[in-house]
Amino acid sequence: MVTEGGQQGHDEPVLAIKDLRIQIDGIDVVDGVSFSAHRGRILAIVGESGCGKSLTALSILRLLPKAARIVDGRVELGGIDLAHLPEKDLEDIRGNKASIIFQEPIASLNPLMRVGLQVEEALRLHRGLSHAEAQREAIAMLSSVGIPDPQKRAKQYPFELSGGMCQRVMIAAALICRPRLLIADEPTTALDVTIQAQILDLMKRLRDEVATSIIIITHDMGVVAEMADDVAVMYGGRVVEQGPVETIFAAPAHPYTHLLLATVPRLDGHRKSVLRTIEGVVPSVDQWPQGCRFRSRCPLATDLCAQRPPLAPVDAAGHDAACWHTDRLMELA
Amino acid sequence: MTSAAVSASPRRKSRVRLSLARWAPIALIIAFILAAIFAPLIAPYDPNAQNLLGRMKSPGTLSRSFHYLLGSDELGRDLLSRLIYGARVSLFVAFSSVILSGVVGVLVGMLAGYLRGLVEVIIMRLVDVFLSIPAILLAIITVAVLGPGLMNVIVVLALTRWPRYARIAYGQTLSVANMPFVRLAAFMGASAPRILLRHILPNIIGAVTVVATLEFGLMVLFEAGLSFLGLGVQPPTASWGAMLSSGRNYLATAWWIATFPGLCLFLLVLAVNLIGDDLRDRFDPRSH
Questions:
Q1: CA angle at residue B259 from B254 to B263, to 5 degrees?
Q2: Which DSSP letter does residue A207 get?
Q3: Which of A45, A308, B1, B254 has the highest count of CB atoms within 10 angstroms of its CB?
Q4: Buried b (16+ CB within 10 A) or exposed e, A106-132
Q5: CA distance readout (Å), B228 to B40, B126, B148, B267
Q6: Backbone angles phi, psi at A221, to 5 degrees
Q7: Coil, helix or strand for A185?
Q8: DSSP state at residue A285
Q9: What is the pLDDT along chain A (333 residues), one digit of tens a residue?
Q10: Rounded to an integer, what distance in angstroms lies between the CA atom of residue A251 and that of residue A249?
């Protein structure tokens, strides 16, 4: 397959996922997901727990738990299909061309190793730099992620740093090889709100400085609004809507996105208005309905929804939704 | 302010007492080690020099050219000199067997805990088998095959004790290997040996050290037991266990022959165990 360029008016995507299917025990937990991430842009993958967003993200670098398996689709990073790459060749990609940061910053650091050494690790493994050279770069990187007095901090152990500091160190370690792609799996969930904002600001700044593409996995619409350039909303292992963040927030085209946004309490809303919720719960993976998987909770559902709706363009700005009833969204208000 | 002044003094007192409890065992062990190393300089006489006219003299006796500070044994050998030389055997055997069994056990346990799968099954079932064999039986069999002697004692001890380390290292590795930082190191492309040595080993070494310390005391006793049974160090080499064994025959007439080696064993093992307890408290995350 040839990589298509300029499809969405951007340059060639850094990462293109096409029809990805992941199974656990023969059940499709991620079912035909496609999206792409672009250089210098932040893509947010949003959804409730169990919608497959983390599995999708982990599958990009083939970090899936043992039970889960990619059965179909392509994950192209710079034209190379990672989904079918031999494990040996992945070593050159991981931590080098594509990197990841996890939820728990403190547990992600070796408690008995100086943080400077941990930032250096990727450089020494991938570039074969000496300790002295790697150290110089690590300290520069620590300084650019906003750690004051990086010379001194590099010699400290993780327990001497706060959670926010640890996440900055993790970001420094992830970006030290200047990867083309950074995957952040709920990077701020474990941090308190003010630190959250700082970390998000930092990631936005680094997106421009390192010119990397960032994929951020989150369930927090606030983080999406704050951070993202593009959004992919997932439900039931599928992307139900995707597009630029402004469009999605201003004019959601899928009932799920619409209801999800309506559940966020607003400062300018009516004080007495009742907080909205989405009726029902996410069905377990083996009980998803045929056709549209949101059908069982969707107020707009009709018989037509028993057929799977394709992810189709809603407008020309790269805004897609997978719903038969995008024209009836008014009824939800 | 007064409450602070009142509470300050007992706290200081307890700290002094604590540090005494912490340092006394260490000082004792250092004394034993120094005695073992510098035995030829410290010991007043040749530990094997016999004086058949000065047999079983009580502590403090003068006999011919000998001044028996702690008495003499059934061949008129100076007990103090034999105790000092005996420390060499006890400490050497204990150190070597702890290191040998520790290195083997930790390595094997980490491999089982990190690689999982078939390796884990084979290693851990082997551990179960070894733990189910009575140690003394295994020792007797091994000595019967290899013959008695210092090196063989060390081999026997390593052979019977490695499963304990393997179990500890295995359990600790299982929990550490699932920590995000280990997964991240693997993700970054670190090789298995690098992960085991740089990321896992430093994080499990605390628990292993505690076990090793307690094992050290056990090894001293084990060596004494083997020598007592005649399976360990052979005469005329001085060893606390062998001295205990021969002194047992004269307990009614010459109590000092068995008592002093017993006392040395007791003090050494007590000191080592106290250090082990202290280390366990320090490495216990709940104490922080």
A1: 165
A2: I
A3: A45
A4: bbbbbebbbbbbbbbbbbbbbeebeee
A5: 25, 30, 12, 18
A6: -60, -30
A7: strand
A8: G
A9: 333 333 444 568 899 999 999 998 888 889 889 999 998 899 999 988 888 888 898 899 888 888 888 999 999 998 889 888 888 888 888 888 899 988 888 888 998 889 999 999 888 888 888 889 999 999 999 998 889 999 999 999 998 998 889 988 999 999 898 899 999 988 888 788 888 888 888 888 888 888 889 999 998 888 899 889 999 999 989 999 999 999 999 889 999 998 888 887 777 767 677 777 888 888 888 888 888 999 888 888 888 888 888 888 888 788 999 999 888 887 776
A10: 6
Note whether B279 and B208 are within 8 A (CB): no
CATH superfamily of B89-287: MetI-like (1.10.3720.10)
Do the chains contact at A63 and B188, CB–CB below 8 Å? no
Backbone angles phi, psi at B236, to 5 degrees: -90, 5
Residues in A closer than 8 angstroms to B188, CB to CB, are 94-95, 121-122, 125
Joined tokens for residue A31: 């079912």
Crossing angle, helix A163-175 and helix A115-127, to 10 degrees?
10
Q: Could you tell me the residue ranges of all domains in chain B?
A: 89-287
Alpha-carbon dihedral of residues A77, A78, A84, A88, nearest 10 degrees?
Answer: -90
| Ramachandran bin of B48, using left for φ above 0, alpha for ψ from -120 to 50, beta for the remaining angles | alpha
- Please report, as a single letter, which amino acid is at residue A304: L
Whether A89 contacts A73, CB under 8 Å: no
Angle separating helix axes B150-177 and B201-228, nearest 10 degrees: 150
* ipTM score assigned to the predicted complex: 0.74
Measuring CA to CA, which residue among A152, A117, A155, A157 is closest to residue A138? A117
Tell me the domains of chain A and their CATH numbers: 15-97+177-332 (3.40.50.300)
Interatomic CA distance for residues B112 and A111, integer angstroms:
23
- SS3 of chain A: helix, strand, coil, percent, to 5: 35, 20, 40
| Amino acid identity at A170 | M
CB contact under 8 A, A95 and B188: yes
Cross-strand bridge partners of residue A216:
A44, A184
Largest CA distance in chain A: 67
**Phi, psi at residue A36, to the nearest 5°?**
-135, 155
| Contacting residues for B91 by C-beta, under 8 A, at least 6 apart | B32, B33, B36, B220
**Given A112, A113, A126, which is nearest B189 (Cβ)?**
A126
Integer-rounded Cα Rg, in Å, for chain B is 23
Task: Work out the number of other CB atoms within 10 angstroms of the CB of residue B211.
Answer: 22
Q: How far is B155 from chain A (nearest CA, A)?
A: 33
The H-assigned helical ranges of chain B are: 2-37, 39-42, 79-115, 117-132, 135-146, 150-177, 180-187, 192-194, 201-228, 240-247, 255-283
| Interface touch B199/A113, C-beta < 8 Å | yes
User: In degrees, to the nearest 5, what angle opens at C-alpha B183 toward C-alphas A83 and A134?
Assistant: 95
